[in-house]
């Protein structure tokens, strides 16, 4: 299933007038402040977020999974789903594969299909946190950190295999996320496990193509854990530095202890030129994988404020970031949920672009704390939705993506085509 | 010092056109959705927040206190400061006294002064968390919970004295906040301390005038603590119910463990008709007493969403709430800081008033989680500042209170009148 | 499979001398302090912990489940497993069933089997957090809190069915744990959901036999949640009081926000006579369901200290508590894991029994904080293992249960009897 | 005031028999397991903890400070107090000065006095978190991170001055702890502040004597903060590496976000050879500065387990650690409180020394999680107090330090000598 430009144009038509009016007002308002609205539209248009191949079906918890109907049953259908998201939002221009859930059998055909949907392949993701049927060694007690050299060798080889698959699709980076850790004090040597993980990552890095990047994810805990091997950004950075210049830290918004100041981690990593990528989601308690911006939109704005600042003051040559949504869709239609996340990301980015950096720097230099807060909050309180909408419309997307999705009856068509009880591979 | 209407009118004049345009746009937008803007303006105008008498000077931490200049040195000057806040914002129409920091020597004169500034006296606050010079018994090991009957009797009598003082000013409620607790396991009997606190509160309640209300605050910890006697809303509610119908729970936004869902506590207490009041502030880690809305504005909105819902569905006869700002001003000019807090509160309230409750209830009935989120976020993402500004302007306040405060040179005048090194009584 | 007394006697024989010596030393030490060792042994012997029927197989996380071999495949085998635990430890004298995972087909036979293993049936547990095949209504959006009366009616009827099943086995209580809640702000009305839950619980309570008790569990969050309906002890207590005298709050050690003072909750509930039961486990981050005492043994001791105090000062007629282990066994042999938990519980209880309550009360009265801490820590630092071992030995159990379990080759025999790839029903 | 050996001998005499018996039993028990008790006693004897000069008086919170009577009024008296602690415990063999609270006027005399009490001078501590009277620049908005070069220069020079003072006393290290940070988003550039802090630390490091070490402390938050510049160990390590080989990270147990796995940070830093020192205390909620071991003794044991392992497997040449107690004494007699802390530290160290490292490594290699936990808990559950006591007694200390302190009437003598209302300089 593929949305055609004419469909969207027809869908947008009745709302265009209202949008134009609100965009006009906002545009004038911004221009009166000296903002370059053309440049803003371009920056928004350039922000493309990868959709992970495993997040297009209903997620689940330990209590069960409520299938949604019309879920994509194979990689081709997943690409079609991301294509739909991109057609509607013009901001989901790439897809991030998870191996072994989505091994392409005919890479050339898959690349062609992606191109039809105007999609590229972003970072590939390895999986050594689950045992696959027929696997020689079990990851029950870890993978890259495992006490046994055989298990580590298998996990290293899996990562290299993932890279090879990624190469066939044009990916240029691999994200390594581990569930390695211990459930109990004493289960393994904390130092030994870290050292072995370092060695294993170096082995992968050594055989990674020169034009690839490795993103090392961190996470403080999983359910039923006492410790994870890569618990925080400090450990991830240490491991990345231990690998080499093409290894970076990847930040997932949900992978932090309570009250962590995530925007500060972002600032620090960009100062070191070591921020590789971002997994977006939101959370109230732990790694809740909720819709982006559904719980802490101001934190999201503050993070984007650091990203905007970091990209504009890139003294350490931090490379362009790999952006991805990493949420779980248990109750909402996954496609609607992702559209909400995409919108929240663009809104936060637009707000951050509105921050008057010069005035802010000036207020900071004068220790004018009141004024500094006013500047940030003025940007955050601005209703930037007409701007975000205009950028999307200029790129050929839907003015109101969720509304369009519903009015066009997309889920109904997917169910008709694919059936009610398909189940997407993935978590 | 008192701001005159003509001063503010002159101050507003050059900005009125711009405001009118933005208000016009927002008004039309709201009215096209069927909203009654007149009623909205009235609701905003009615929301009056008490300013505590101890928060008008620079706050401090254990590392020191940086005095701000022109701080109010006595109760009269504090009233003048709140009068300034009210004149500028039209939303700070009452003052909350703390005894013994602000004992009025001539209550009638103080009431008259307050009336001149259009201020009333909200809840009075007792203090049994510090020893006063010459005090017979020490609160080092607690007050209402103390093992010794003499200490408890002194603390009970202090609360009754605070009520008597409040009566002379027209207050109708007392807020009881305790720092009672233990630094170490075993220091006191957890049960014994709670039982004695219950008994002490009942003793105060028995002698409280019939038309008064008692607000019982809770807080999970203080620095250097192992436990507090009234640790959470459950304990506070239990104690309030143990006292009688005029005892209520008071919620301070900063008094919760990490990740607490505060809006749910609000909803629960309103269902029971037992929410007495609110202390506004914001925090990232603990009881940080930061400017309202400076860290988690969406949480503030969600709380107001419950309050608006609760007030409109008041099946348990919850009385009107006592609202107060309880922040600490260590770096900013206290008056500017309070103006920012007042603005953030009105913004959150205005956003909550915009929530389409009917559509929300309908989406909830259909389990349409996507739609329910859209409804809430549509309200939150709306730039309601023109609405808040219009309500303030209609009430005779400043369009841009902080700007007016600066342009009118108020702090400079206060310093001139009061001197650079006055220190406000209080924390 | 059933352990015979002679087997255990033979197993214990070589270690008896060493044990006797260490017990002798400890006994003299305790008696020199005026402790009644006979009474202590009796109290320890009386502490019997229920084993939940779902915890005898390997647990799992969202990443998979590593089956252990020889897992019980039906209720009979589960009873046999608990029988083994009880034979070895003499402290696992009851079993707590989970419906529908363990519906007894022939209750009389099941009771007889349990009696052979000297087991009784403790609280039964309902399950409205998962959909069962063929179920008319789905719990995707809640059960007792659901917006739809049909769903609530189904969930109420399920609870009553669980009670009826429990009656056939001699159970006298039901534990209600709900995963009801919302993933997103706005998903449901917080107040409406709470009110409906109250109504549903009252409906169950009304039809519960008069000699039964209802235990209402609370929990602040699940993964992918924004709120749970019964988030904390305050809500649970409110609901229990709304039901009647036979409804109580149940505390699960893992169901709290970070840094919660659990022992204080225990003290408060016992003061109200409303503490119904306890689910033991341990955790470092969230609801980790780790082995009891594996992370925070001092907290466990402090909790038992409150329990011992509460049972000795039972002014509010709190009934005897229902004790249960609620842990998940992902990496260890479930039976070994449970033996470690049982040991940790008895150790903490024994330490709490050693606390010199009179001296403690005296130190508290004198505000001697140093001394109060010394008294608690003296008890905690005492090596009470010989006492715990002696109680077990006198009751016919193993001196060293895990060692006995291994030396007797129990797991190997279970695998031989049941096979390597059985999977226990349950989570 | 100085305790004489004869005083202590007389004090110990009546308890010696009982101690000897319990020590004998434990010694035999340990030797039967192949432990070298002589070596253990030596290791315990070698563990010397610095007492900070500011912790000998009553601490305070924002609510007040309850003076204790007989507090040391000058550096000489502080040294005498530490001398008392060392005489009683034989484990407080050094003192850590805080400048400017304790500037020695006659260094030679101070060194001589310290020598009389068998004390050395450990790390000196600088203070740029408070303004001193007459100071040219204020630290209200930071010190080493400040936007203004003048403020930074003053803070750098202060640190160098502290080093020079330390040199006169024989210190060889400086601990830098900053309260630099921001109360609000936008207050300062997160990246700018970090960069300036790096530059300032490098400036201090450059001028530090070659045989000195710099310890960089981290802390995630202070009350009323939004961010601290050196928030976590990752930032501290980055800064230390940016300075050079003699800069290290210092861990304070209370300086972590909720649920942080501190023992893992210790293991990681030792693997890098970058763990410089330790500030001991305990906490339930935040940086509570409670008595060591009063809340989480098992965590303390697990930390020591990593330290023991790290010192025995020191592949990265981590230097010997600087140990210090950093607690606050608000309710207990400060000297009694410190004696409890010293005891808790030695107990945890002794327990960690008992861990059978060989068996543990073997269990880990076999993934025998049950056994690994048994090994750790066997050590922790052992009552090592006779061992700790014997080590102290052999070194000439008191068998029961707190009891001795009380029976010898030390506090009463201090009050008699120094008066009831002295106040120690410090926080």
Report on this structure.
The structure is a homotetramer of 427-residue chains. Chain A has 427 residues and is an alpha/beta fold. Chain A has one domain: TIM Barrel (Alpha-Beta Barrel). Helix content of chain A is 49%, strand content 10%. Chain A is built from 15 helices and 13 strands. In chain A, the strands form four sheets. Chain A has a six-stranded parallel sheet with strand order 6-7-9-11-12-13. Chain A has a three-stranded parallel sheet with strand order 1-4-5, with helices on one face. Chain A is globular. The interface between A and D is large, with 55 and 55 residues.
What is the helix tally of chain A? 15
Shape of chain A: globular
Count every beta strand of chain A, where a strand is a DSSP E run of 2 or more residues: 13
Strand count, sense and barrel status of the largest sheet of chain A are: 6 strands, parallel
How far the N terminus sits from the C terminus of chain A, by CA atoms, comes to: 24 Å
Rg over alpha carbons of chain A: 22 Å
Number of domains of chain A: 1
Classify the beta-strand content of chain A into a percent band.
5-15%
Helix content bin of chain A:
40-55%
Keywords (chains A, B, C, D): Isomerase, Manganese, Metal-binding
Protein name (chains A, B, C, D): Sugar isomerase
Organism (chains A, B, C, D): Phaeodactylibacter xiamenensis
GO molecular function, one term (chains A, B, C, D): isomerase activity
């Amino acid at each position: 299933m593929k949305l055609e430009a004419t469909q969207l144009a027809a869908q947008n038509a009745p709302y265009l007038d209202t949008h134009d009016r609100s965009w006009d007002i906002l545009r004038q308002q911004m221009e009166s402040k000296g903002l370059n609205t053309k440049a803003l539209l371009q920056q928004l248009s350039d922000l493309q977020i990868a959709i992970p191949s495993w997040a297009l079906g209903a997620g689940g918890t330990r209590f069960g999974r409520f299938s949604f109907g019309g879920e994509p049953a194979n990689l081709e259908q997943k690409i079609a789903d991301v294509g739909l998201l991109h057609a509607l939002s013009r901001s989901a221009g790439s897809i991030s594969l998870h191996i072994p859930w989505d091994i392409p059998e005919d890479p050339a055909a898959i690349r062609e299909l992606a191109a039809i949907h105007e999609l590229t392949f972003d970072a590939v993701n390895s999986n050594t946190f689950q045992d696959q049927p027929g696997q020689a060694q079990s990851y029950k007690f870890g993978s890259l950190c495992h006490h046994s050299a055989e298990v580590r060798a298998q996990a290293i080889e899996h990562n290299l295999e993932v890279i090879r698959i990624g190469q066939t699709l044009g990916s240029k980076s691999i994200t390594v996320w581990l569930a390695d850790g211990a459930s109990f004090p004493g289960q393994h040597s904390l130092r030994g496990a870290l050292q072995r993980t370092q060695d294993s990552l170096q082995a992968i890095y050594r055989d990674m193509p020169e034009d690839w990047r490795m993103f090392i994810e961190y996470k403080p805990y999983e359910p039923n854990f006492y410790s994870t091997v890569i618990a925080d950004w400090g450990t991830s950075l240490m491991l990345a530095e231990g690998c080499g210049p093409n290894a970076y830290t990847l930040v997932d918004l949900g992978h932090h202890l309570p009250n962590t100041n995530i925007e500060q981690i972002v600032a620090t990593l960009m100062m070191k030129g070591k921020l590789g990528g971002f997994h977006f989601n939101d959370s109230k308690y732990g790694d809740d994988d909720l819709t982006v911006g559904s719980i802490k939109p101001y934190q999201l704005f503050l993070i984007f404020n650091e990203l905007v600042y970091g990209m504009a003051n890139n003294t350490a040559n931090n490379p362009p970031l790999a952006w991805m949504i990493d949420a779980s869709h248990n109750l909402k239609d996954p496609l609607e949920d992702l559209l909400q996340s995409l919108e929240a990301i663009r809104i936060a980015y637009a707000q951050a672009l509105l921050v008057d950096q010069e005035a802010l720097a000036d207020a900071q230099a004068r220790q004018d704390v009141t004024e500094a807060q006013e500047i940030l909050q003025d940007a955050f309180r601005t209703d930037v939705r007409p701007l975000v909408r205009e950028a999307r419309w200029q790129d050929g997307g839907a003015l109101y993506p969720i509304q369009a999705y519903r009015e066009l009856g997309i889920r109904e068509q997917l169910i008709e085509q694919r059936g009610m009880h398909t189940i997407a591979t993935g978590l």
